[in-house]
Each structure stands twice: as structure tokens, then as C-alpha cells.
Amino acid sequence: MTSTSTPTSRYVLAVGASLGTVLFLLLGIGALGIVGDGRHDAIYLAAPVVALLVALASRFRPHGMALALGCAALTTVAAGAWSVGLVITDRVGASVTDVVMLTVMYAVLFAAAGWLFLRADRDVTASDA
Question: What residue intervals traverse the membrane (predicted)?
């Protein structure tokens, strides 16, 4: 059985998932906050910045975009670890469980978008062969 999706359609799907994740992160920070009162949420914005910098360096090629979103997922985990440290030391009034769960959710969303780019890259590589 053959797949009806093209490498271009998979790339577009991956771009949509990436932009959706960033928008979801921005709305989550703006509307609810992740860490306490919201002043400390800016650290989570490092993930989209890292993703953009790596994407620019890779010239938006599928494999580079997968790497960019993997870096964004790791940056999100690092931001979450920093945030958990703030919560544990009682610098902010938030739940450790909430911070961990939200961090994991955003990291998984970035990783899933990266996986979609890997799928698009595999399709491009296969069609070039």
C-alpha cells in the first residue's frame, strides 16, 4: 500500500505543528502562566528562540528543522528544571506537579513536531534516491 502524502505535505504538516506548539506555549504563558504569577514564565520563551536560531542556521531544511525542534524540547526541559527549582525553594507559589506536567507537555509537543520533520526528511531522501 502506498502513501498518498507527499514530502511537501508532510513538511507543511510539521510546520503547522511547530507553529501551533509555539502559539499554544505563548497563549499558555499569557493566559494562565506556568510558574506562579507569570513573571518567571519568560524562561520558556527560550525554546522558540533556540528553535528559530537553529532553523535559520539549517536554512529550514527538514533534518535541520527536526534538530531545531529537538533543541527546543531540550530547552523546554531545562526551563522546567529551573522552574521546579524556583518552586522547591519557595520563591514562587506554584505546584511542582503542575510545572512538571506543563513542561513535559510542551517538550513532547516540540518533539512530536520534530518527529514530523524527520518523516518529511525521510520522504525527501527516499524520493531523491
Answer: 12-36, 42-60, 67-88, 100-118
Q: Closest by alpha carbon to 49, among 16, 71, 77, 78?
A: 71
- pLDDT tens by residue, 96-120: 999 999 999 999 999 999 999 999 8
The DSSP line for the chain is ------HHHHHHHHHHHHHHHHHHHHHHHHHT-SSTTTGGGGGGGHHHHHHHHHHHHTTT-HHHHHHHHHHHHHHHHHHHHHHHHHHHTTSS---HHHHHHHHHHHHHHHHHHHHHHHHHHHHHHHHH-
Does residue 78 register a pLDDT over 80?
yes
CA distance 123 to 129: 10
pTM, two decimals, is 0.89
Better-scored residue on pLDDT, 12 or 32 = 12
